Amino acid sequence: MIVEQSLSKTEIEKTIKQAERQKVQRLKTAAFRDWQHKQNPNDQLPRGRFFKGKKAGKPVVIMDEFHMTFKQPSNPFPYQPTGSFDANFLVTKS
Hints:
Layout: H1 9-28, H2 30-38
């Protein structure tokens, strides 16, 4: 079964405009974010509407890689123990 997703032309244009606005905002605040991350966490930022709710210092980044513990390896045994095993080699002849 083939499922096709289609968006109307207005939805596509709306999404493109939103992405462009986000890019402009990101580029507009890039210098401030760079300066903000260079500050010490105890420093006080300037007063003003733009700085409201922002904190000085680098942001805390938490990476969760616990899910990789249960990931099955593609080849659990890199050396195949039974691949070219000759059982007659272990038999001792007296």
